[in-house]
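[recover] target loaded
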């Protein structure tokens, strides 16, 4: 037997503030009418924040159900005793039908092939299972087109072991002011489709459309359920329209590490791969045990800061797979073991996920989703 070694000593970690997460959930809850259900979107490991722990917190805070992208993500929740309804937004792939039935996971269905396969599997077991269908009202991605609905329903009606529990659509441009009119158009199309749903004899229990930006800024109610993701994790900076900055949502993640080594190098020395940086003076350089394989983007090389002892210190040279170098010449007594904040804030200074994603020319979601399993998620509060 191997002894139970403690392998958690590398100081690099993502601290997740569950109190901030509960507050974000509560802020969304408060903006909705009491009868509107919240499906907390926890796909992609809760946008990198850890799906199991976050889902438990959302459940305690009053979430009604969860949305994931894949069967594997759904099973992870079930295996960790999460019993609320789970909607698999990515649908059911051939061969997955029995697992969906076994774990009680509801798929989003966009074509008759998926419906027929799931129906057959349910028929074998002698059960009726719920499904949601997705309508493409303008996203142009997955979903049944409005003019194909009638034919789809003819097929769906033959699937006696499926129950149409939900009808949904997805907004393409709810995150911007200039998208407002387009969103209104999507709602109108969706309403027309719903008329077809009812006219075809279906009475789905759930109608849902709104993602985070729509849940927070689009006043008109659409259906009786919303599907926020990013806002729950406080990633609202690049997702809410300019006109409606609700800066009360707080990011819940702090990316931290400790200084591993400090060294003195003379003026004119190259630093890191490809010598993209040369010291301009005699310098103190510190090495941080984090790199692009952790999900700290290489595109931040020479372009961002970290926070140490409540001061900013610049990242210098190329960020490599496992290491990042910073200039600590102006920091008071920098030493091995000093805590460094790469994303987050202390009492005075702040570097947000949005700051980082802007420099890396992407969106905050891609940054938090990009943290790899090498970074332990540590939960506080
Ligand atoms: C990811 C996703 C959401 C959540 O979107 P946010 O912008 O993070 O709130 C909602 N619905 C669907 C179908 C999604 O894929």
């Amino acid at each position: 037997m191997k002894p139970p070694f403690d392998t958690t000593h590398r100081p690099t970690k993502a601290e997740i503030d569950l109190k901030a997460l509960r507050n974000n959930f509560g802020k969304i809850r408060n903006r909705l009418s009491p009868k509107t259900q919240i499906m907390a979107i926890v796909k992609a490991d809760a946008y990198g924040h850890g799906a199991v722990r976050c889902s438990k917190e959302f459940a305690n805070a009053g979430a009604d159900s969860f949305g994931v992208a894949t069967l594997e993500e759904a099973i992870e929740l079930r295996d960790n005793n999460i019993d609320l309804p789970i909607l698999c937004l990515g649908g059911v792939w051939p061969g997955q039908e029995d697992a969906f039935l076994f774990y009680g996971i509801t798929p989003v269905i966009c074509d008759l092939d998926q419906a027929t396969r799931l129906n057959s599997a349910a028929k074998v077991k002698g059960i009726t299972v719920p499904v949601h269908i997705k309508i493409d009202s303008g996203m142009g991605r997955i979903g049944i087109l409005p003019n194909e609905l009638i034919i789809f329903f003819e097929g769906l009606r033959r699937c006696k072991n499926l129950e149409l529990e939900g009808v949904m659509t997805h907004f393409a441009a709810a995150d911007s002011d200039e998208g407002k009119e387009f969103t209104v158009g999507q709602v109108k199309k969706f309403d027309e489709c719903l008329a077809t749903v009812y006219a075809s004899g279906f009475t789905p229990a759930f109608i849902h459309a709104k993602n985070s930006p729509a849940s927070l800024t689009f006043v008109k109610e659409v259906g009786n359920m919303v599907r926020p993701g990013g806002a729950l994790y406080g990633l609202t900076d690049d997702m809410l329209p300019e006109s409606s900055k609700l800066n009360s949502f707080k990011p819940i993640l702090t990316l931290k590490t400790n200084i591993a080594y400090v060294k003195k190098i003379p003026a004119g020395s190259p630093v890191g791969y490809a010598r993209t940086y040369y010291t301009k003076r005699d310098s103190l350089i510190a090495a941080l045990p984090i790199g692009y394989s952790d999900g700290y983007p290489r595109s931040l090389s020479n372009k961002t800061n970290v926070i140490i002892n409540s001061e900013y210190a610049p990242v210098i040279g190329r960020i490599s797979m496992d290491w990042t170098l910073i200039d600590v010449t102006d920091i008071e007594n920098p030493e091995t073991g000093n805590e460094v904040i790469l994303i987050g804030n202390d009492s005075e200074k702040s570097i947000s996920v949005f700051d980082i994603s802007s420099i890396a020319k992407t969106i905050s979601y891609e940054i938090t989703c990009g943290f790899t399993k090498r970074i332990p998620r540590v939960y506080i509060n």
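[recover] notes: The mean pLDDT is 95.
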